[in-house]
User: Fold SAM-dependent methyltransferase from Paenibacillus ehimensis.
Amino acid sequence: MNDSTFIGTSNRGFAQQAQEELRRLLGPSVKFEWLAPGEVFAFTSQFERGDTIDRILAQEPVFLRHMQPVDAEQSWDGTFDQTIHHIREMLALAGTSLKQMDIAVQARKAEGEALANLSLPSVRSSIDEMLATVYEANPVSREADLILSLYFTEAKLYFGLSRPQDNLSDWSGGAIRFRKEEGQVSRAKFKLLEAEHTFGLDLSQYRAALDIGAAPGGWTSLLLERGLRVTAVDPAKLDATLLRHPQLMYFQKKADEVSFAANAFDLLVCDMSWSHRQMAKLVRGLLGALQPGGTAIITVKLMHKKAFQTIREVVSDLAPELELQQAKQLFHNREELTLFLMKQG
Ligand SMILES: C[S@@+](CC[C@H](N)C(=O)[O-])C[C@H]1O[C@@H](n2cnc3c(N)ncnc32)[C@H](O)[C@@H]1O
Assistant:
């Protein structure tokens, strides 16, 4: 049986948690090598490539944000010409037919002076040209059939070809980007946008949302844009641009100072910067207002880096009313992660 190697990426400072998850999924023999300490690492599993991917996808890790296969690795001298030469060879060796396929080239590099002069956009555009002229493929940036992943360290060039769904994210390194809008209330809006994407939700399908810890109002503004009625609760001020919105009710109060009719909401969101147990207690106090089958999206602070214990404690504090569907550290989470839960009937 052939072993298989991948490059794994987590949020900075959470790679050890990602490695712990991989050890659980792939067994204690999995080997790691740092590429960018704390964030990017190569891992080698005793299982062949497809089997390794299946094991990881079957129980998607919380902290592993992205993975890309390593089909070939090559020492290199850091020059542009040698880079293109090696990639040409690796593509030829891969032997996969790329004709008429939509291919996205995703290139990343480790930090380091020796890599400072390597221009990733120039690498990408040269490969795009090669893909189009030599392989009759269609270079694309999104919605690809296959992703050609490149990772450069000072010593090596790593190359892999994979289906986007096998990489955990179809964004390079899992770094999903949203366009910042003019007048955007807060960057926190990106967290809810990413949660919607990652958990496969369509927020416009909900009717009425309760937003706990809503100020300055990034999440509230997204929910209003999606057409929901929103009840926002926060002792701090909501952005003035939101206050006149006809679909918004705003209580400038703490979460334990409000109460609502039973089943008033089909969506509860909470992005409070609180210790996880305090937050869970405040959410529990308002759970009667979430209808059975309703969804909850909750940010959890990871105060002391005891990440797995924190998840266990919050999930147990919110049970049995809320049942965990998925926990994920999103690209837009910092020292936190996001839970997607459902209210039981
Ligand atoms: C990270 S901010 C929320 C950002 C918001 N989701 C957005 O998109 O703009 C955390 C908020 O939680 C609020 N908060 C803290 N304690 C609270 C409590 N007991 N009840 C309600 N809100 C609280 C804070 O006032 C703060 O505005």
Remarks:
- The pocket of S-adenosylmethionine is lined by residues 185-186, 188-189, 212-219, 233-236, 254-255, 271-274, 282 (CB under 6 Å).
- The chain is about 25% helix and 30% strand.
- Helices lie at 15-26, 49-58, 80-94, 120-135, 189-198, 218-225, 276-285, 307-318.
- Residues 274 and 301 are 7 Å apart (CA to CA).
